Amino acid sequence: MLHPTAADAHPLGGGLTLRSVSGQADIERLAAFNALIHGELVDGMTRNLIVHHPHTRPEHWLFIDDEAGRVVSSLCLIPWTWRYGPATLRSGEMGIVGTLPEFRHGGRSLVAALVERFDELLDTEGYALSHIQGIPYYYRRYGYDYALPLEPHLNLELRNIPDARSADDAFTIRPARPDDLPALVALYNEAARMLDLFAERDEATWRYLLLDTAGTAMEADTWVIAGWDGSVIGYWRVAAMGFGDGLIVSEASQLPHRAAQAALRHLKALAEARGKPYLRLNLAAESSLARMAQAWGAYDAGGYEWQIKVVDVPRLFMQIAPALEQRLARSPFAGLTETVLLNLYREAFTLRFEDGRLAAVEHAGFTDEGTIKIPPSLLPKLVLGHRDRVALRAAYPDFAVWGEARYLLDVLFPPMRSFLYPTY
Questions:
Q1: What pLDDT score was predicted for residue 164?
Q2: pLDDT number for residue 5
């Protein structure tokens, strides 16, 4: 259902107005615009996300129209909640960005106006981070940089998958049903425990994935595998669309050894039926299905990464404080009482630790001081464990840390096992 929302309009001059969705008529013209820019399957995706997704709201869908009511540019904010060790971290995805060709060049950037309003929403609603799947390079101008894995291409040729064996008869493989929801929630959470950073997913989101993505750009079939007693022991999802010519496995739970083999054989049959020459596993490196595929000759064909920016530095550190405090407690820095200066070149922040707890993070303005100097675009890479201090220093000469601060940084921000399976 459509959540009630107040109309929001900001005149931009030249007959253009920046708005947010406030009713069904707005949904329909925005869906039609997104289909025009991104393809017809994004029509249903737009409509379903606004109306049916349990965690999106219409005021997060921004667009600019002209005096004739024609939508000329748009983007949206999709809420995510991440688990960061024992901490909960809020990030807003910038999604479905598009502009009519005749408005993409010239003296004004409509996307810049939308991003400004998007950033206001992020700030007022308490997000610490923002992430985007966006095109290469472009979003650096808005403060984003590559900081988490996205779209792996672990490819497995069909000829490398052995033929079916009698052991497969111990399993039943079928499409998931709504009555499987409790099992899917439990299996997702079990698989997530293999990761240090992952997206939370509740039963309402699972219901959306099962019932409200058919015929859209995010359509995926969910398959479950059951043991001899009929109980569901695993699942995987097969995306209808994506990059490359292979059959895309977009998600999988942890699977027992023999069940993983049966799953790959099932996927081989599905790929053959759909005329796909190979399997592409878009899975976390820790996935048992990915490991089984590698044992059968799957190879890494590259991938892409999420682009991420920090919305508010103090908010970020306070949201992840439980994880930082846990790392300190398990290290020689246990009980740390010290004020740490984090210099991001254009501005600095003090992190005040008291007895091993992060008591406060405060803005310190501009300064040349400090033994930790980090370009702001690199902060997400470090904090999210995508690259450690040594790797960042090797790649960026202006990532500068001296003395004891090196040891402390290594304790606070170790490499993390991270992967974000979609929530829509």
A1: 81
A2: 65
Per-residue burial over 101-122, b if 16 or more Cβ lie within 10 Å, else e, is: eebeeeeeebbebbbebbbebb
Residue 203 contacts by C-beta under 8 Å, 6 or more apart in sequence?
A: 181, 182, 185
* pTM listed for this prediction: 0.94
* DSSP code string of 57-110: -GGGEEEEE-TT--EEEEEEEEEEEEEETTEEEEEEEEEEEEE-GGGSSSS--H
Nearest to residue 338, comparing CAs of 372, 312, 310? Answer: 372
Q: Label residue 6 by pLDDT band (50, 70, 90).
A: low
Q: Maximum distance among all alpha carbons in the chain?
A: 70
User: What span, in angstroms and rounded, lies between the C-alpha atoms of 94 and 351?
Assistant: 29
Closest of 2, 119, 112, 86 to residue 49, by C-alpha: 2
CB atoms within 10 A of CB 9: 10
pLDDT tens profile 150-179? 999 999 999 999 988 887 889 999 999 999
Token pair, residue 125, equals: 């609603």
Contacts of 142 (CB under 8 A, 6+ apart): 112, 115, 309
Task: Provide the strand spans (E) within 168-260.
Answer: 172-175, 197-199, 220-226, 232-239, 247-252
Residue 191 has pLDDT above 90, yes or no: yes
What pLDDT does 4 receive? Answer: 57
